[in-house]
Amino acid sequence: MKRVFFPILLTLSVILNIFLVSRERAVGNAGTPVIGAVDGDTIVLADNKTRVRLRYVDAPETGLCGSKEATELLTKLTVGRRVRLEEIIPDQYGRGMALVYVGGSLVNKAMVASGWVRYHSDETAEKEEIKRVSEEAKAANSGVYGKCESTTPKDPKCAIKGNIDFAINKYTYHLPGCTQYETAIVQEDRGEAWFCTETEAKKAGYIKAKTCR
Asked: Rounded to two decimals, what is the model's pTM?
C-alpha cells in the first residue's frame, strides 16, 4: 500500500510545487499599471509617474497630422492596464525605451501595424516582424500613410510643397514646375507642409529648392 501511495503523493507534491511557482511568476510578472499616454509613442507608468517610450515607434508630434489618432490608440491599448517591459535601453536623452507587452500582445507591433506611427529602425528580436507590419501598413495606405502623406494638394491654390531633409534639418520648398516637384512627398505627420505662397513658405523657415529656376 505504501509503495503505491508514496509515488502518488510525490507526484501530487511536484504538481503542487509547479503550480505555486507558476502562480508566483504570474503575479511577479503581472506588470506595472499605466496611468497615461503622453502621445503616440510614450506611456506614463504608475510607479513614480515614469515615462517609457516604445521602441520602433515614431509618432507624430502633438498637433501634427495623425497625432490625435496615435495618442488615442496608445491610450486604448495601455491606459488602465498592466504592462511588462522588456529589452529596456536609454534613449539619447537618458529616458527609458522598451518593448511593451500587455499580456502576450506586443504594443509596439500593434502601433506600427496601425499605420498611425512610423517605423523607427531598432535592434531587438522583434525587428523583422515589426518591420514587416510597417511595410504592410504603408502598402495599405493605413493611418498617416493615407491621411497625412500626399503628392497632390488638397487645395489647388496651395500647391507649394514644403519638404524637410531630416538628416541635416534642411527646409526647402518646391514650386509646380520644379524638377523634383512631381516626386516630392509631403509628410504632414512629420512637420512638412503645403503653402499657398512663397512668402508663406519663407516665413515658415523654408528656402527655395536649387532645382527650381
From this structure: 0.82
Question: Is the CA virtual torsion 11, 17, 23, 28 positive or negative?
Answer: negative
- What residues form DSSP beta bridges with 207? 172
- The mean pLDDT of the chain is 88
User: Cα separations (Å) of 126 from 2, 93, 140, 189, 210?
Assistant: 52, 23, 21, 25, 41
SS3 of 207, please? strand
Give the closest residue to 110 by CA, choosing from 153, 89, 81, 149.
81
**Pair (136, 176) in one structural domain:** no
- Same domain for 108 and 88: yes
40 pLDDT higher than 90: yes
Rounded to whole angstroms, how far apart are CA atoms 209 and 212? 6
Q: Which domain holds residue 173?
A: 150-208
Q: What pLDDT is stored for residue 121 in this prediction?
A: 94
Cβ of 119: how many Cβ atoms within 10 Å?
20
Domain check: are 46 and 120 in the same one?
yes
How much of the chain exceeds pLDDT 70, in percent? 86
Please, are residues 130 and 112 in contact by the beta-carbon 8 Å criterion?
yes
